[in-house]
Amino acid sequence: MHSFNLLPVALLLGTSLAAPFRSGSKAGITNHQKPIDETNVRWEKVVSGNGMAFEIGQHAATATTIDQVEKSCSQGTIAPTGKNDFGISVDWRLGSGSWNKPSESEQRTTGISDYSLHESSSPFYDYVLEFMNTETYDFHFYDHTGDSYEVNTGSLGSHLVRYNSDKPGIAFVTGN
């Protein structure tokens, strides 16, 4: 068994050693799963509530900016909605990559119309939460370990969170 210093690799890849390199195929990924296409995603490295590295991303083609929404509202194309700060318990479980609908109450409260929580194709992160928002919020997603992942959505559309967790299911969501 050889021992390697991962620091040069981490520096070359522009990543942190706080997000350890994951090698080999992921247990449980089957051919019927459809990992997201990460080629047109803008990724940003950030730190979780417990100090762990994670990434947030957005598909460049699906983003609707706040300026576009405000223009549509002023033209009567989209009716503006009132939004409130919230905190809500959810039971978003690890799945196979298909889209799920939050309950009606969750959709009304969070402004999230769809989500998918599945294993990641990234060599650095084990899980991906992808969600579609109809309201812009500074979201915090809490997994079952209590760690939180912040995604401040300045646009509507598809947003992604790549992270590592011993209990990756999402148990609570806040927004302000």
Write the topology of this structure.
Elements: H1 7-13, E1 41-47, E2 53-59, E3 64-65, H2 66-74, E4 86-92, H3 104-110, E5 112-119, E6 127-133, E7 138-143, E8 148-152, E9 155-163, E10 170-175
Antiparallel strand pairs: 1-2, 2-9, 3-9, 4-10, 5-6, 6-9, 7-8, 7-10
Notable characteristics:
four-stranded antiparallel beta sheet; 13% helix; globular; 176 residues; six-stranded antiparallel beta sheet; mainly beta
What pattern of helices and strands is seen along the backbone? HEEEHEHEEEEEE
Structural class: mainly beta
Number of DSSP-assigned strands: 10
**Radius of gyration using CA atoms only:** 17 Å
Q: What is the straight-line distance between the termini?
A: 50 Å
Task: Please give a structural write-up.
- The chain is mainly β and 176 residues long.
- Helix content is 13%, strand content 36%.
- The protein has helices spanning 7-13, 66-74, 104-110; strands spanning 41-47, 53-59, 64-65, 86-92, 112-119, 127-133, 138-143, 148-152, 155-163, 170-175.
- The strands form two sheets. Strands 1, 2, 3, 5, 6 and 9 form a six-stranded antiparallel sheet that branches. A four-stranded antiparallel sheet has the order 4-10-7-8, covered by helices on one side.
- A hairpin with a 5-residue loop joins strand 1 (41-47) and strand 2.
- The longest helix is centred in the middle third of the chain and has 9 residues, at 66-74.
- It is globular, with a radius of gyration of 17 Å.
